[in-house]
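User: I'm putting together notes for a lab meeting next week and I want to include a structural view of one of the chains we've been expressing. I don't have a solved structure, so I'd like a prediction I can at least talk through. The sequence is below, exactly as it appears in our construct file.
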Amino acid sequence: MPRLRGRTFSNPRERGDYPAKDRACLDASDVAFALVRWIVDIYHNSPHAGLGGITPREQWEEDISNGNYPLRALPDKRSKRLAFGLRINRKISRSGIVVMGIKYHHRDLAAWFIRPGSKVVDVRWDAEDLGAIEVFLDGEWREIPAVHDRFAGVNLHVWLTSRRALRARSAGRKAWDEETVFRAIDEIEALSAHKAAVFGLLDTSISEKEFKHIEASLFSTFDIADGGSLLDDGEEPGQEILPCEPDAAETPATAKKAKSTAAKRTAACSPKRAKPARRADNPKSKKINSNAVPAAKWTPVKKEVK
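Assistant: Thanks for the context. Below is the predicted structure for the 306-residue chain, given as structure tokens.
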């Protein structure tokens, strides 16, 4: 660290006349980058007097091979959310729970909503992963996923940058198409992908005061219009209605209209069938003009014979 420009030393006396402000040129990301590279690539590979002249990396590998200091797996996302997530109160509505403009829903919330009593519940929310929240129901914390699965793995800073980009395009717009929202997230994530390692070392925590300010200023009038990419757990109530062939009793005009309507509704999910080739003995039928006046039929006239 003393080799970096703009250092302030341990106290003003030690700093003396060193112009720290004039030589400051590194931001937090740059300092974190230099610190990680020094620890991982220099310190861990340099001989250490306290280890008998071997490097920390060599000591680590030896301990692992001998069974010393067994490694423990990192805590999963849910454990981190419960341990470090911000605890807030939210009211369950018919559409679930909304936090930072993101909707969260599950059949457990739906069952709780129809029960009598208060609809306000405790929520654990983690800024590092907006794909799910924890809700305290019936004496236990339950994971509730976001309605749109695109938020899985998205952190708060990417989401805020995306939201500000959308507001810059149209400040007065309240409801946004989900395709537009998710495209903005993709672009922001692609822009910051090369700094992901450095970004993870910075402080991503958020205080309760900051949480309330951000939500009120950016998401009080924000909504994602539901499209067709909602998260489906396969247990939603309802019945799937598939198109079928018209009944034989239907008239040609009715059958044609029903077939056209069904085709429009299922064009996105039904595979297209190739049209059968027309054979020589099956020529194309001619169209009949229903507006044409039919030719008069000849009717014999009976004459009375006296």
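A couple of points you could mention at the meeting. Residues 127 and 204 are 7 Å apart (CA to CA). The first helix runs from residue 12 to 15.

User: Perfect, that's what I needed.
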